[in-house]
Amino acid sequence: MLDCNRKQANIEIAESDARGFPKTVEEDVVEVSAANSTDKQINITSIEFEPNIGKSFPAPLHKTIQEVPSYQVRHAIVAYDELMQEIKRRGYHDATKGRIVLYDALGKAYKTNRFRL
Question: Whole-model pTM?
Answer without folding.
Answer: 0.84
